[in-house]
């Protein structure tokens, strides 16, 4: 099943990631006018349960758009958007959002919860893939400074199997044993980095 999924999406991804043409950040910025209403100015979301995209790794962004387009990641709001995107658009959008500065860290209103989150992250070795700064790399998402509500939602979606995760398909296995308490602490900690 996982192999089938990779087969479905890899065709499209090779097209996006190939050297067929350099990504065009200016064209990506123009296309991103379709996105700003939800993902916010400068890729910083002000909307509940909508992720910020600023400074996400280029590859991660491209993969997620390909997953939405292939239907292996489902979301009613993203579906009509990705139907309009070509491989070239995806490559340009990935380069554009990756080039933007990340969200500024917010003042931490609950340092005790962050401490619990930091302990859980160390215990679960989240940094092994997300990097020590949690800025992400390649197909691994940036989680530092992401919206707290969205981080909670994403971890619940992996845990319940609503979101399978692609490429390394690691997150479903990682989120499965997390308790609700750990999810909330992890999200609080990461959102305030
Ligand atoms: C109508 C609102 C809406 C619009 C317009 C929209 N998005 Fe989204 N997008 C969402 C929501 C909601 C999610 C979170 C889906 C989920 O919870 O799984 C999302 C998720 C994503 C993700 C996954 C990010 C992550 O951290 O997992 C990417 C990438 C993305 N959108 C890119 C875009 C791009 C590029 C555009 C414009 C071409 C766009 N979106 C337009 C609502 C929107
Ligand atoms: C083995 C590598 C690995 C480890 C360890 C790992 N992750 Fe991930 N994580 C990934 C990958 C790869 C993705 C992108 C998956 C996808 O395509 O949906 C991801 C995605 C996520 C996302 C979704 C981000 C978004 O914007 O949609 C969150 C949240 C997350 N990880 C949190 C964590 C936390 C918290 C831990 C520790 C409990 C953790 N990860 C440990 C590899 C890992």
Give your account of this protein's structure:
It is built from eleven helices and no strands. The chain has 193 residues and is an all-alpha fold. The chain has two domains: 70 residues, Cytochrome c-like domain (Cytochrome Bc1 Complex, Chain D, domain 2, Orthogonal Bundle); 81 residues, Cytochrome c-like domain (Cytochrome Bc1 Complex, Chain D, domain 2), CATH 1.10.760.10. Helix 7 packs across helix 11. The N terminus is likely disordered. The structure holds heme C (2 copies). One heme C binds next to helix 3 and helix 4.
SSE topology string: HHHHHHHHHHH
How many domains? 2
Write down the overall geometry: globular
Structural class: mainly alpha
The first-level CATH class of the largest domain is given as Mainly Alpha
Unreliably modeled segments: 1-8, 14-19
The number of distinct β-strands equals 0
Over the alpha carbons, how many angstroms does the gyration radius reach? 16 Å
CATH superfamily of the largest domain: Cytochrome c-like domain
Bound molecules: heme C
**Major sheet characteristics:** none
How far from one another are the termini?
36 Å
Could you tell me the mean pLDDT? Answer: 90
Per CATH, the architecture of the largest domain is: Orthogonal Bundle
What is the helix content? Answer: 40-55%
Beta-strand content bin: under 5%
**Tally of individual helices:** 11
CATH topology of the largest domain: Cytochrome Bc1 Complex, Chain D, domain 2
């Amino acid at each position: 099943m996982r192999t089938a999924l990779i087969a479905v999406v890899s065709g499209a991804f090779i097209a996006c990631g190939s050297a067929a043409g350099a990504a065009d950040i200016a064209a990506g910025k123009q296309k991103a006018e379709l996105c700003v209403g939800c993902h916010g100015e400068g890729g910083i979301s002000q909307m509940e349960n909508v992720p910020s995209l600023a400074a996400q790794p280029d590859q991660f962004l491209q993969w997620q758009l390909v997953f939405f387009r292939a239907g292996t990641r489902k979301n009613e709001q993203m579906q009509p958007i990705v139907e309009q995107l070509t491989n070239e658009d995806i490559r340009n959008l990935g380069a554009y959002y990756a080039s933007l500065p990340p969200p500024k860290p917010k003042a931490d209103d609950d340092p005790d919860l962050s401490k619990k989150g930091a302990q859980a992250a160390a215990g679960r070795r989240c940094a092994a893939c997300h990097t020590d700064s949690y800025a992400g790399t390649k197909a691994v998402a940036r989680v530092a400074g992401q919206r707290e509500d969205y981080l909670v939602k994403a971890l619940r979606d992996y845990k319940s199997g609503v979101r399978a995760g692609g490429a390394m398909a690691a997150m479903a296995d990682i989120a499965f044993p997390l308790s609700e308490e750990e999810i909330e602490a992890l999200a609080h900690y990461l959102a305030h980095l």
